[in-house]
Amino acid sequence: MHFAYPPRKSSNPPPFRPRTSALPTIRGKRLKTIVLIGLAFLTLLWLFQRGGRSRHAPPAYHKPSGNPPVVIVTVFNEGKYGKGYLDMVKENRLKYAEKHGYGTFFVKSSDYDLRGAPVSWATLPAVRHAMTEFPDASYIWYLDQNAFIMNPQLKIEEHVMKPSRLEELMIKDHPVVPPDSIIKTFSHLKGHDVDFVLTQDKDGLSSSSFVVKNGEWAKFFLETWFDPIYRTYNFQKAEQHALEHIVQWHPTILAKLALVPQRILNSYSKEKGGQEYKEGDLAVRLYACGEAGEDTCETESQRFAQWKAAYQDS
């Protein structure tokens, strides 16, 4: 009987391979997953906190305290008028401001780089400059160089800007550019919504005397009005026609604008330009006075020299 021999072991066994465990690999994958989940959680937390701050903590805007209540801004073109005349204009503003505790801000047109635009454009950076110098002023009153304050008893914040007074004065549903502009002043505007007050003359909006309420809207408005596109557009009447353009094309500006009767803020020395000055009016502008010749601004101003006596009586 034959028995099979057991298989013979090879004299050349395979090389030894140690037994490997899957545990370290599993641990590495889990650690990587945990790290990724943690980073994702921290990212979401950061985004949530950032979004919460932007929703619940809007940028803080400075609210003017009303000190001074009003700042009077006038831009002087010193190269074309005599020093005596300009000193008289300054004295007129200073006396009125002193009486009511207002500020004054006098600058030269040459103080601003207008990049070739007409000097009348200096009005806008001057007003913006005054807002920076007087951040707590409630109102900025721009008054043309060739104008005089005639009635020292009237205060801007009461005679013009008080909401109840504005609702009495506002000219509503009226063409912005007379006589037949299809864009009209808002009929539903309330006094407390108004940030910009001016008048019209026979030609249209007049930028020789206006009041703007100090604040963020005023900054936006002045920057829009002073846009380089408008300064280089070559409007016939420079910043005045630019103003008429933006008022008609930007409802956000028209919604803050109030037109008031011309004699409230901007009477003229001659009826030819608009409503003529009458005794008791706040201010008079020397309409179309010249720099030389017979009808100069200096000569025209003598007709209204009684403003000095008004301070002696008050």
TrEMBL record:
Keywords: Glycosyltransferase, Membrane, Transferase, Transmembrane, Transmembrane helix. InterPro entries: Glyco_trans_34, Nucleotide-diphossugar_trans. GO terms for cellular component: Golgi membrane; mannan polymerase complex. The chain crosses the membrane at residues 31-48. One of its GO terms (biological process) is protein N-linked glycosylation. Pfam families: Glyco_transf_34 (PF05637). It comes from the Eukaryota. GO terms for molecular function: alpha-1,6-mannosyltransferase activity. Residues 1-22 are annotated as: Disordered. PANTHER family: ALPHA-1,6-MANNOSYLTRANSFERASE MNN11-RELATED. Belongs to the glycosyltransferase 34 family. This is Alpha-1,6-mannosyltransferase subunit. It comes from Neurospora crassa (strain ATCC 24698 / 74-OR23-1A / CBS 708.71 / DSM 1257 / FGSC 987).
